[in-house]
Amino acid sequence: MNILVVEDEIDIRNLIKINLEDEGYSVITAANGIEALNLLKETSADLAILDIMMPRLDGFNLLRKIRETSTMPIIFLTARTDDMDKVLGLELGADDYIAKPFSMSELIARVRAQLRRNNDYMITKAEKKELIRYGDLTIDKECCCAYINDEQIELNAKEYKLLLYLMESPERVFTKKQLYNAVWDDDYYYDDNTIMVHISHLRNKIEIDSQNPEYIKTIRGIGYKLHKTGGHYEK
């Protein structure tokens, strides 16, 4: 198992690394969020331990970046004890939260617990492969892949989430703000143009004629819906 440790205090970083390696884990370390993202481009991790207060890119924003492409367990490690920080971290997708000072035995126990839960989840997920079909579109939620006429569509993370959200409720009309909140998980920085651009990109990839779409229909003055004449929904 590979564990990523992101901590700007070198003594703490090295202490965690040594103790985890003593438990048989492979450990990669980074001193800040930018360094961590660069490491993740070159190698994979099964779990990450992130400090919150770091230079260049803090733990909250690093978590946002990681969650765009990965569902690996993430444990926050921080000296901040404000409940709002804890709530924010968990809402952003953290799986656990440990306040400094901490004992290494507790950290190791939590690492084991998160890896065990994730392994159980992955086994269950593999046993219950979930496909969503609508018309000629198919989404395989297990591998986060989309297909049209059984040919894979190359989508980025936001395009995939947007198509998945629409396909889970075909025929339902969504406002642009509802789509933004669902895909970006943030209503504070809502941007009407962002949705329009991503819908346009998505149409270019799934429609035969993006100017006369078969699937993603514009409902003027409201938003969008997924609709295809004769389209059959299957889940």
Tell me the count of domains. Answer: 2
User: How can the largest sheet be summarized?
Assistant: 5 strands, parallel
The coarse overall form would be: elongated
Number of strands: 13
| Number of helical regions | 8
Mean pLDDT: 88
Radius of gyration: 21 Å
Structural class: alpha/beta
Q: Regions with pLDDT < 50 over 5+ consecutive residues?
A: none
Q: Order of strands side by side in the largest beta sheet?
A: 2-1-3-4-5
Report on this model:
This protein has 235 residues and is of the alpha/beta class. The protein folds into two domains: 2-127, Rossmann fold (3-Layer(aba) Sandwich); 131-234, Orthogonal Bundle (Arc Repressor Mutant, subunit A), CATH 1.10.10. The protein is built from eight helices and 13 strands. The protein has helices spanning 10-22, 33-42, 59-67, 83-92, 104-127, 157-167, 176-184, 192-206; strands at residues 2-6, 26-30, 47-51, 74-78, 96-99, 131-134, 137-140, 145-148, 151-153, 174-175, 216-219, 223-226, 233-234. The strands form three sheets. The protein has a five-stranded parallel β-sheet, sandwiched between helices. It has a five-stranded antiparallel β-sheet with strand order 9-8-7-6-13, with helices on one face. A three-stranded antiparallel β-sheet has the order 10-12-11. A hairpin with a 3-residue loop joins strand 11 and strand 12. Helix 2 (33-42) runs parallel beside helix 3 (59-67) and helix 7 (176-184) crosses helix 8 (192-206). It is elongated. It starts with a strand and ends with a strand. The mean pLDDT is 88.
